Structure to design on (1011 residues):
């Protein structure tokens, strides 16, 4: 499956231009910084740097952008852990356990964990990519509405896994988010709920809404506290603890691998692939763990699951981009644009004729992963100090950053207005025990669920069973979905049966 | 001190006073025609990054920037069927610093006649319409249909079983609707599967997600081995696609065929107002575009990416746009675009 | 509140939230139905909003707990497991948080008028003082430098113009 001539070609390409290597560290840094400022995200950083790549050759340009992408993937984790505000839509799941860990004073471990998980995620993700880039391309193109619907539903089951004490509240939060996600012009051309506000035609801008909800619910609840972490001694950036977090990942190789696999394959699905991947991985980890209730309170495995998935989904979405010319998400859309600027089109021909370039990109990313380790650690030395800033200063500063970030996303008044509205909503929800994350998940998935549901309905002529029976992949997904929901039940029955047999 | 002015924002009295003062200072150094452009330009793309219009805009911006001597920044404003981007462009001052790359037809028309936009097609002056597409009906290589006759027969014999993928607000939808009506087929006799944009329809065709798809032929040439073309919506036999054209098919089916609508027309626009307000700047822009379209390197690049670069020129382009606008400016036809 | 021999416990804030959610859902449902009854339009929105309204009704009833004034209060629903990490907020803190939210709203509403830079500066000063930062020197210095760095940096980096007054 490895193309040896492409392999050699890639080696020579990598050695041909020093610029390819020079851009990696700056790219990683930009991505890290951008991802960790709540408001800016790696997509935004890529968008800003895109014009710069005009002055670079093709390979350095791609290396630069993918380095930003990689850096941002981890950068998002930093703000998720330290402040409970996701830096990107793919770091939402990281907040669930990362932030509680930080509040407990375990932020060093959490950051170390996340870094290692991210690095391994990128590495393993791209290794898998190496072997499956061509067949995966063929596979993705066969994904039809039914399959996409099932993936979206799988992501939705996340809402149930998010729990919160009362199921009714989780359902309301999630359902409301889902509903809001459908505002605007739907895939059949109907326009709902826009109240004649033009920017709503395209739906409620997700990133500002998400930031508003998380920022408000976290920051406003912190008013009155002096510091993020009560214990002064715990606030130091302690490298030993970061390292211990690091190494603890290595104790759970299979766990990490599972998260990575989920990330790669879900990340390859065009559309919301990378945002959904971390949620599915988290939900899966929670469901199958012996102690599911510890998730959400600071279980390191929760952070691992989320971070391994969101880093590997980068590799997955690269597949879709290279193989089909379809953007898997914001980051790969930027890459496509860069490709165009340098006169390269993605698509099967590209893969067939330019396997060496594909390999070059993959190997380049291996190097990025390794360098991320070093640059990340250095970054942590600085970033970890955020927890020492008094909240009285931190809160307004983060609010402004979030505001500017939401302006940047929409380019006009729409972003900040959305931020404000959802900040109010998020705060109220948090006060009364409604899981904000469930609402965000619903918002993220709303469009996808509705669009694919509509298309499935259309293509099956109104729900004819025959349609589904003829689609093995959809059936497989459905079975997987049901199995994954039942897995905890099955596991419990199985352990009970085993204990009974043993004691007999 | 540079004051950033925008027509859509109200400024307080103090701000206005400051603005006027600055304007007078700046005005004293006003830009004459030879100095245009003296700062970077913006090209608005009413679609997301990575799409066809975006890629074309970025590709040509490089060459344009060389001709004009100033960088050109691409700004994406997706949403609402290209409407948000068109509105944004329309609101920018007509001073030559804002250009637009968009799918002018049918979107500007649809924006105006169906979506209630407050601009008119005459407000947009095409500098060059470089990509003129044609609607086609295509299917995957392993589809059960290998000819248009088979498709028509199947639709008639087994109504409600054939699925057709299409983007609802596109000319392909319009052509499809006209075709079905001419055949005497009811909308409900086919399963219309709707997508938000052309890309997924293309991939759906190739991947066999639905039986057939109605799509514009832009961006399909590079992938022609991956799918089968069944019919072309053109008035003349197609030079590009190995399939019959719609009038031919209509004749062999013995039916009247009312009209063929052009495929998507994409290109570059400025404000019509610019032509009168700053004629020298307009001329400079047109000239720059024309020179790019003759630049062999640019031509090679565009062709390599399946993007058009032929020089049609502003006058011919405007005439084409207005003509196609009139073709679909028919309430009955527009009903087909409006979802019921 | 008392209603004759009955005492009714009402969580007003919670009620407000539920009413808002139900209201928005209801409005959206009505708007969607008015646009079209076609399956392609209603397939998700209608069942989902009905479900949501039902749930809201359920929670609504949970917000209002009547009991006879003479009998002791029925065992309180165990409070949602207090997040051990959350520090309890005093009413003063809640008020501050609310004012902060209002401040954000004002910022969002007025920045097109007075410019993002001025608005940011004002907001920073307001927030810092509200949250209790002491130092007549520190507050304006931090606010100004923060504004300069952040707003200046943003206007330099971003491709579209930031509405600003001073630069």
């Amino acid at each position: 499956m490895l193309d040896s001539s492409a392999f050699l070609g890639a080696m020579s390409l990598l050695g041909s231009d020093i610029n390819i290597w020079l851009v990696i560290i700056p790219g990683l840094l930009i991505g890290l910084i951008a991802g960790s400022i709540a408001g800016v995200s790696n997509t935004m950083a890529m968008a800003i740097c895109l014009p710069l790549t005009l002055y670079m050759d093709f390979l350095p340009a791609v290396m630069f952008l993918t380095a930003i992408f990689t850096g941002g993937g981890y950068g998002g984790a930093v703000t998720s852990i330290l402040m409970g505000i996701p830096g990107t839509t793919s770091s939402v799941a990281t907040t669930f356990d990362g932030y509680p860990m930080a509040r407990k004073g375990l932020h060093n471990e959490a950051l170390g964990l996340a870094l290692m998980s991210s690095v391994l995620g990128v590495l393993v993700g791209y290794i898998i990519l190496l072997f499956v880039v061509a067949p995966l391309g063929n596979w993705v193109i066969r994904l039809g509405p039914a399959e996409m619907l099932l993936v979206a539903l799988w992501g939705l089951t996340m809402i149930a896994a998010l729990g919160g004490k009362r199921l009714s509240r989780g359902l309301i939060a999630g359902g409301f988010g889902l509903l809001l996600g459908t505002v605007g012009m739907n895939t059949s051309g109907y326009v709902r709920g826009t109240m004649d506000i033009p920017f709503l035609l395209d739906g409620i801008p997700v990133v500002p809404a998400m930031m508003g909800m998380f920022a408000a619910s976290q920051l406003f609840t912190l008013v009155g506290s002096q510091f993020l972490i009560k214990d002064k001694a715990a606030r130091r950036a302690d490298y030993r603890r970061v390292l211990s977090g690091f190494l603890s990942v290595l104790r759970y190789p299979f766990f990490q691998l599972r998260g990575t696999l989920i990330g790669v394959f879900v990340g390859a699905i065009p559309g919301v692939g990378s945002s959904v991947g971390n949620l599915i991985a988290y939900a899966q980890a929670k469901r199958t763990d012996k102690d599911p209730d510890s998730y959400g309170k600071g279980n390191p495995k929760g952070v691992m699951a989320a971070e391994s998935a969101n880093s590997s989904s980068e590799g997955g979405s690269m597949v879709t981009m290279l193989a089909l010319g379809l953007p898997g998400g914001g980051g790969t859309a930027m890459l496509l644009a860069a490709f165009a600027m340098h006169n390269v089109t993605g698509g099967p021909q590209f893969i067939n004729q330019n396997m060496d370039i594909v390999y070059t990109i993959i190997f380049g990313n291996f190097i990025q992963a390794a360098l991320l380790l070093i640059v990340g650690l250095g970054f942590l030395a600085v970033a970890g100090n955020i927890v020492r800033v008094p909240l009285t200063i931190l809160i307004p500063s983060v609010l402004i950053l979030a505001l500017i970030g939401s302006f940047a996303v929409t380019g006009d008044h729409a972003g900040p207005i959305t931020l404000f509205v959802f900040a109010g909503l998020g705060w109220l929800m948090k006060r009364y025990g409604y899981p904000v994350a469930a609402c965000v998940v619903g918002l993220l998935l709303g469009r996808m669920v509705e669009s694919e549901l509509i298309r499935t309905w259309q293509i099956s002529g109104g729900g004819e069973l025959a349609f589904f029976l003829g689609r093995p992949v959809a059936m497989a997904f459905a079975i997987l979905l049901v199995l994954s929901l039942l897995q905890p039940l099955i596991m419990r029955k199985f352990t009970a049966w085993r204990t009974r047999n043993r004691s007999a | 001190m540079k004051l950033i002015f925008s027509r859509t924002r109200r400024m307080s009295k103090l701000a206005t006073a400051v603005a006027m003062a600055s304007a007078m200072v700046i005005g004293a150094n006003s830009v004459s025609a030879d100095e245009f452009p003296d700062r970077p330009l913006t090209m608005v793309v009413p679609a997301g990054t990575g799409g066809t219009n975006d890629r074309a805009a970025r590709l040509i911006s490089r060459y344009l920037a060389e001709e004009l001597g100033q960088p050109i920044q691409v700004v994406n404003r997706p949403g609402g069927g290209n409407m948000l981007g068109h509105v944004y462009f329309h609101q920018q001052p007509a001073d030559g610093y804002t250009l637009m790359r968009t799918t002018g037809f049918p979107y500007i028309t649809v924006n105006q006649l169906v979506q209630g936009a407050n601009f008119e097609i005459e407000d947009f002056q095409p500098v060059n319409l470089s990509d003129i597409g044609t609607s086609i009906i295509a299917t995957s290589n392993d589809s059960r249909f290998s000819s248009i006759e088979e498709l028509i027969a199947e639709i008639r014999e087994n109504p409600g079983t054939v699925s057709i993928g299409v983007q609802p607000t596109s000319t392909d939808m319009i052509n499809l609707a006209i075709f079905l009506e001419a055949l005497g087929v009811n909308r409900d006799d086919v399963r219309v599967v709707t997508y938000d944009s052309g890309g997924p329809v293309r991939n759906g065709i190739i991947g066999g997600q639905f039986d057939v798809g109605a799509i514009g032929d832009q961006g399909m040439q590079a992938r022609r081995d991956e799918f089968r073309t069944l019919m072309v919506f053109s008035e003349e036999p197609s030079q590009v696609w190995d399939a019959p054209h719609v009038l031919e098919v209509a004749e062999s089916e013995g039916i009247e065929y009312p009209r063929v609508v052009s495929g998507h027309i994409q290109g570059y626009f400025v404000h019509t107002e610019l032509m009168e307000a700053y004629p020298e700047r307009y001329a400079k822009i047109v000239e720059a575009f024309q020179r790019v379209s003759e630049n062999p390197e640019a031509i090679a690049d565009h062709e390599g990416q399946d993007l058009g670069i032929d020089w049609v020129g502003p006058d011919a382009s405007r005439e084409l746009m207005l003509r196609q606008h009139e073709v679909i400016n028919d309430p009955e036809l527009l009903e087909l675009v409006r979802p019921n | 509140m008392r209603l004759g021999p009955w005492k009714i416990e009402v969580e007003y804030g919670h009620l407000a939230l539920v009413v808002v959610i139900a209201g928005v859902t209801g409005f959206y449902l009505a708007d969607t139905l008015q646009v079209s009854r076609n399956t392609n339009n209603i397939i998700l929105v209608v069942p989902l909003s009905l479900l949501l309204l039902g749930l809201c009704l359920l929670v609504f009833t949970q917000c209002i707990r009547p009991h006879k004034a003479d009998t002791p209060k029925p065992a309180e629903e165990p409070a949602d497991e207090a997040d051990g990490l959350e520090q309890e907020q005093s009413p003063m803190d809640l008020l501050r948080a609310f004012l902060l939210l209002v401040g954000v709203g004002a910022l969002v509403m007025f920045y097109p008028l007075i410019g993002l830079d001025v608005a940011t500066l004002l907001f920073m000063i307001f927030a810092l003082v509200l949250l209790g930062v002491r130092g007549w020197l520190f507050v304006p210095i931090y606010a100004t430098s923060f504004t300069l760095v952040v707003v200046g940096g943003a206007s330099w980096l971003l491709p579209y113009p930031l509405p600003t007054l001073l630069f």
Observations:
- Chain B touches chain A through 51 residues (CB under 8 Å).
- Residues 1-31 of chain B have pLDDT under 50 and may be disordered.
- The beta strands of chain B are 41-45, 72-76, 98-103, 124-132, 135-140, 162-166, 190-194, 212-216, 227-233, 265-271.
